[in-house]
Amino acid sequence: MTDEAATAALFKVYEIIAHWINLKGNYKRLRQEGKKLKAIRDAIEAEITKDKITPATREWIAKAKMIESEVKDLKTKYKNEVGHPWRLVRIWAYPILGLEMKEKYSQVHRLWEEGNLKREELDAELPEPVRKRHAAKIEENSSLHMAVQDLLSFLEDEQIRRVGVWGTVGTGKTTIMQNLNNHEQVAKMFDIVIWVTVSKEWNVEKLQEAIMRRLKLDMECFGDIEENARRISEELKEKKYLLLLDEVQDFIDLNAVMEIHNNIDSRVVLASRSRCVCYDMEADELINLKRLSPADAWNMFQEKVGHPISSPLIKPIAEQVVKECDGLPLLIDRIGRAFRKKGKDASLWRDGLNRLRRWDRVKTEGMDEVLDFLKFCYDDLDGNKRDCFLYGALYPEECEIYIDYLLECWNAEGFIHDADELVDDTNAFRDARDKGHAILDALIDVSLLERSDKKKCVKMNKVLRKMALKISSESNGSKFLVKPCQGLQDFPDKKEWEDASRISLMDNQLCSLPEFLQCHHLSTLLLQRNNGLIAIPEFFFDSMRNLRVLDLHGTGIESLPSSISNLISLKGMYLNSCTCLIQLPPNIRELVQLEVLDIRGTKLNLLQIGSLKWLKCLRISLSSFFRGIRTQRQFGSISTFVSLEEFCVDDDLSEQYWDEVLKIVMEEVVTLKKLTSLRFCFPTVDFLKLFVQRSPVWKNSFFTFQFCVGHQDNTYSQILESSDYPSYNSLKLVNGEGMHPVIAEVLKVTHAFKLVNHKGVSNLSDFGTNNMENMLVCSVEGGNEIRTIVCGDRMTNSVFKNLEVLHINNVSRLRSVCQGRIPHGSLAQLISLTLTKCPELKKIFSDGMIQQLPELQNLKVEECHQIEEIITESENLELEANALPRLKSLILIDLPKLRSIWVDDSLEWPSLQRVHISECHMLKRLPFNDVNAAKLRYVEGQQSWWEALEWEDDAFRESLQSILHFQIAQPQVCM
Predict the structure, then answer these.
(1) Distance CA 365, CA 61 (A)
(2) Do 229 and 256 meet the contact criterion of CB atoms below 8 Å apart?
């Protein structure tokens, strides 16, 4: 028994030791498993919100917390047991404690496994950071690719929270947004990207629903607008997110939708057809998507069509197909898909091209969807805006239409029908023009019309024009006969014109017209620039009692027939540049509705139109005042035109006739009491003084003018024609001297000022800086006494604080733009600075002037042969890195001594997109790198200059190769 007892005791000791060892192992495993359980519980709680938590998940979290507490108790118990080895009596409790730990470990492990499953389910339920969208491929360095790059740059800018992308249907807005959504750089910038396509029937609730579904919030708890906004805001409050809104058509209050103001790290990019919507949405930056360049359009079409386009039989036809698409990505995409099916069969391609050219009349594959989109834009317009848009189709493809002329036609047609109701009848014509500008802006705003490079013109793209013609052809009340620029020698057949409400046959080779045109519904007849048309049949106008617009300008007619008296509804008649026109019938006085008459460049005199005293707008040549008249008494009287609101007199006389004619004319002009606009050339300052002192309209704040003082060929030069706004007041001084008090008075209300060959002043400050506070555009040309433009010496107040454009040309003794340090706020709004042919100019940005130009976007310096530095280092020692934050374009041409733009790459060029450098062979380094000029998109120069440049970063040089354009060397001309 003794041996058995000893053996049993020994076994018990072994058992106790084993339990102690197991206890330690169980404790270690339990502690590790407890940590894993807590980690997964923390992760689940961090990823889930009370809006998303399900009852099952809530129960699991409660269990996990409870068992974590039990594990904590066991850990405390374990430490108490093993922490006091002298309490041997407690050793017998080890097996019980070990079993408890073992069982608890199993519970924790099971709960951890459940948590892992919950986590996987939760990952599936949580919104993915980026939901990829199907996006058309964008060619590298195409305009669409550049737009995406610009958007990425804006998203990186902490000062920019909202960006608007706008342009007409089919220009690629959605494609850009899709590519932005999918961009890997966006995924790195934001925790989540939210895409919403905003339907036409959108409301706040629908938008909230779309966002909540994207965030995978519990839709069973969908509440009222305020509660939904709170839930969305709560979900996103710790996240940096990007909201992409496509097809936005109206203002959206994002604070009402999602309390967006609570998240300063949020960014919004919206795409809209309307520029105004982008403004209403408080976009900090806008990107206007225009049609693709010919090269980009061709590349995109190649990508869509594929291999067949490489055939020499197909390529010439394909190039014509691309032209018909007019740079619209949507149209290129659809047409490209359709033509891909035609393979390499040239006959099928030719047939497709012919159908495409006639798609407004023939069903064409690929066009229907595009037409639906475009028609949607048209249907969305108000009634009078639709008429105004359709009217633009009367002009040739890509034709530049003068805005003033177009608005006059709209008004004559009655499209601006409620202008008279806005104010009293005193200046109804001007009010109609103002309202017309509002309509025009609305059409430009949705890209149905676009401004041309000539600021005072608009144009309609080819595809939109064809759509407009198709709409008019299907209309019962607005049939168009439109055949401009087609080389027509004969008038169209009767079946084409008898039901027409508007006829456009401009820019053809018509030599004759029908004897009688039975067009009772005709309201517009455009026959301008048919040079061979020398006569109009006597009864031609007999049936046109509803005609409102008649344009015959640039034809060879010598007279108008007596049937002109039947045009009792005519409001606008354009006879300008009819150089052979010498006679009007006496019954011209029957045109009692006529408001606009243009007879510039004709051989008519004022007496022949003297009966039309109700005219609102008259354009006339100076020679018309006395042509064919022998005595002063026979001069017609301008003062009889008592309703005249707009008066334009073009100077076509030599200087020797000026004084005698203009004195008489001016005596008449100062009696006109309803004038709202005057374009006139004064021989001397004294004539201007006469008008200013005696005209009753001069003090009217709404009076606008385009004045020239002094004589020069081509009096109304480009500076007077390039203003962005029709209400610009322009003053041009030619071959003058000194400063006259009346000039100071006129300058106070002048927006565009041009100084040509002026004497007696050394800088513009001599005209009185207080007199030029409203100046927006300034040009200085010629003269050898001007040394600087702005003299900062002894100045205390800011100067030229509203000036936006400054052009200096051929000023032979100009030394600097600014002399001395100019006061803070001077030139603060300057956008464009051009310096050309100033042979003694050495400094551009001197005396810290560069710090005054936060808005400068365009800088051009050409043929200034003494320039060595663009930014003079010695005079800009404390220059801030972001000195030119908005500079977009830098053009440097023929600067043989130029050594430096800036000494190194320490400056930032955050907006610079275009650099053009030519004939600057001493310029060996560029101050740009991939960080300080990240938006650089175009570099142009000569190959020899480029190859001689010195680089610190060869990688940057290589990166510029894709945007580099070499100038083609011009052959040398031997004299």
Answers:
(1) 60
(2) yes
Predicted pLDDT of residue 719: 39
Q: Which residue is associated with the tokens 């048309």?
A: 533
Beta bridge partners, 836, equal 809, 862
Mean pLDDT in the chain?
A: 84
**pLDDT score for 822:** 83
Within 10 A of 885 (CB to CB), how many other CB atoms are there? Answer: 16
At 8, which helix (H) or strand (E)?
A: helix 2-47
Element (H, E) at 688: helix 685-694
Judged on CB neighbours under 10 Å (0-12, 13-18, 19+), 208 is buried
Coil/strand/helix, residue 141 = coil
- In this predicted model, what pLDDT tens digit does every residue of 468-484 receive, in sequence order? 888 888 877 678 999 99
Q: How far is it, in rounded angstroms, from Cα 181 to Cα 134? A: 10
pLDDT value at residue 472 = 87
Residues 31-35: contacts with CB within 8 Å, 24+ apart? Answer: 31/71, 31/75, 33/105, 33/108, 33/109, 33/112, 34/68, 34/71, 34/72, 34/75, 34/108
**b/e 52-73 (16+ beta carbons within 10 angstroms → b):** beeeebeebbeebeebbeebee
> Which tokens in the block code for residue 903?
């000494």
Strand runs labelled E in 527-608 = 549-551, 572-574, 596-598
- Encoded tokens for 831: 């956008």
Does residue 966 contact residue 946 with C-beta atoms inside 8 Å?
yes
Which positions of the chain have pLDDT values less than 50?
A: 50-51, 88-89, 419-420, 422-423, 630, 714-724, 970-975
CB-neighbour burial class of residue 492 (10 A; exposed 0-12, middle 13-18, buried 19+): middle
pLDDT of residue 482: 94
3-class SS string, 903-953: CCCCCCCCCCCEEEEECCCCCCCCCCCCCCCCCCCEEEECHHHHHHCCCCC
CB 644 within 8 A of CB 615: yes
Query: Would you list the DSSP string of 421-441?
Result: HHS-GGGHHHHHHHHHHHHHH
How many angstroms separate the CA atoms of 112 and 673, rounded? 92
Compute CA distances 513 → 416, 490, 520, 532, 536, whole Å. Answer: 31, 8, 17, 11, 7
* Phi, psi for residue 716 in degrees, rounded to 5: -90, 85
Output b/e per residue, 352-381; b: 16+ Cβ within 10 A: bbebbbebbeeebbbbeebbebbeebbeeb
pLDDT value for 975? 35
Greatest Cα pair distance in the chain: 162
Q: Tokens 């805006």 correspond to what residue?
A: 385
Residue 636 one-letter amino acid = G
Report DSSP letters for 300-332, one per residue. HHHHHH-GGGGSTTTHHHHHHHHHHHTT-HHHH
> Which two tokens mark 528?
């301008």
What is the model's pLDDT at position 420?
47
CA 163 to chain centre: 12
Q: By C-alpha distance, which of 163, 167, 456 is closest to 327?
A: 167
Per-residue pLDDT tens for 777-797? Answer: 999 999 889 999 888 776 778
Measure Cα distances from 431 to 248, 411, 676, 679, 721 in Å: 32, 11, 10, 19, 22
Report the distance separating Cα 694 and Cα 678, nearest Å.
15
Cα 529 to Cα 137, 380, 408: the distances in Å are 45, 35, 19
Q: What is the value of pTM for the model shown?
A: 0.80
**Side chain identity at residue 662, one-letter code:** L
Give me 907's structure tokens.
């400056």
